[in-house]
């Protein structure tokens, strides 16, 4: 609409005037992806945040993404346009429960998915994202590790290594709900399409996948593949990013139910308001930040 395109331009001008960079996750609503300087997966968002020379980082996504930026950039102002956007999976582990479990397991190293709070990262040895989980696992010397909070991501990574991986019973309510029946029906409807799945899907769904990727990994895979049709086993916001990157290819959602409520909470107006009023600032308490930074930086250092 005209109102949106005016707001889009006003946001671009304000971001420039305030030396702000707008980062958006690949699941954000289309108009948020379109107004951002950079879109990406969780790993790319944290690398961008760490490297930017902007004064202000506007982080469009869910809380753990803004917290990761704040962990890496203590001298910058990190703003969350809608501070109410959380990640239900991140809430499935607390620092207290994690410390207790690590002790029970004799102190083995803990790999924590970035979909977690700063306080949980602070009691972890290293972080990972869906893009680097196998690499992170293989850099650890210990042949036994605890992975938290996503049991599906942990099972996926465990199958690719000889290490013993202890699971945490967390999951993404949306990815975890994608069923084999739904995927099979989608494959039957689109017999020429390749099926790409996110590692947060259940093991039986991952077995049906032609490729298992992070969100940006899916964008790259679609570009490199000779196929021109794909069924997408992740949050439907990615379809906008995929069609933008590869307008000549066709993308079908594996399920139109795969919609992350919290990712859809960001509006253009929120971005304008937070930049104008410097509201929605995310700050991580310093003693937690230092420890969490150690776990995040170890992950970023792995090439
Ligand atoms: P990516 O890091 O693959 O973008 O995934 C983030 C996420 O929240 C998946 O549900
Ligand atoms: Fe969290 Fe799932 Fe939403 Fe990703 S899609 S942010 S894991 S609830």
How would you describe this protein?
GO terms for molecular function: 4 iron, 4 sulfur cluster binding; metal ion binding; quinolinate synthetase A activity. InterPro entries: NadA, NadA_sf. One of its GO terms (biological process) is 'de novo' NAD+ biosynthetic process from L-aspartate. This is Quinolinate synthase. Its cofactor is [4Fe-4S] cluster. The chain is an alpha/beta fold and 303 residues long. The chain folds into three domains: 2-87 and 263-283, Rossmann fold (3-Layer(aba) Sandwich); 90-171, NadA-like (Rossmann fold), CATH 3.40.50.10800; 180-259, NadA-like (Rossmann fold, 3-Layer(aba) Sandwich). Helices cover 43% and strands 16% of the residues. It has 14 helices and twelve strands. It has helices at residues 2-17, 30-35, 42-51, 63-72, 95-104, 118-122, 133-139, 151-158, 180-189, 203-206, 215-224, 238-245, 268-277, 286-301, and strands spanning 20-25, 38-40, 56-60, 77-79, 110-113, 126-128, 144-148, 164-166, 194-197, 211-212, 229-233, 250-253. The strands form three sheets. A four-stranded parallel sheet has the order 2-1-3-4, with helices on both faces. A four-stranded parallel sheet has the order 6-5-7-8. A four-stranded parallel sheet has the order 10-9-11-12, with helices on both faces. Helix 6 (118-122) links the parallel strand 5 and strand 6 (126-128). It is globular, with a radius of gyration of 19 Å. The mean pLDDT is 97. Bound molecules: 1,3-dihydroxyacetonephosphate and iron/sulfur cluster. The site of iron/sulfur cluster has 13 residues, from loops.
